[in-house]
From TrEMBL:
Biological process annotations from GO: polysaccharide biosynthetic process
Source organism: Profundibacterium mesophilum KAUST100406-0324
Residues covered by the Bacterial sugar transferase domain: 12-203
GO CC annotation, single: plasma membrane
Keywords: Cell membrane, Exopolysaccharide synthesis, Ligase, Membrane, Transferase, Transmembrane, Transmembrane helix
Pfam families: Bac_transf
Enzyme class per UniProt: ligase
Gene designation: exoY
Cellular localisation: Cell membrane
Protein's name in the database: Exopolysaccharide production protein exoY
Amino acid sequence: MQPHAARVPLSKRLLDKAVAGFALLMLLPLMLIVAVLVLLVDGGPAIFGHERVGINGRRFRCYKFRSMVRDADAQLARILASDPAARAEWETTRKLTVDPRVSRLGLFLRRTSLDELPQLWNVLRGDMSLVGPRPVTADEAVRYGDHFATYSAVRPGITGAWQVSGRNEISYPERVDLDVHYVTNWSLACDLGILLKTVNVVLTGRGAS
């Protein structure tokens, strides 16, 4: 039976908009510096938008500072075609532990979570929430199976249970379980707890990729 999603009140959305708007104003100088660094190091666009699945299955562009080289898709295809171990890891987790597509600056941005700052704009637009399930691609969405309706009952988050529970140190099925548990047991106290834990994860870089 499909788990029943907890009802998320309007107060969560209002809090999202207030915090995201304030954070964008305060962090704008830092974001401009990051954008210039990306342009200087690798050229091309500083911000990358990737299609993800959001609330009610709606597709949206999830924004990040670009952490990969410009020919990342071509490099991924070559890696998966030539390295069976990398292909097996990708098919299991949709990530690579050692990813040659990520630039040196990109590694720093990911470890410090600075690459995710543009998602504050996604929060203001209503695509995302500060806290929620991790935004997934259409290919990943099928991994949720019967739980997809639960996952898509709320907006995906910049941070969430997965991000503060080990990130790449946990398996994909465990990640699905964390998202389902979050949605079905949502509370404001839970969101505040995850936000506090996120600060620790960002400062320590635990599980970052």
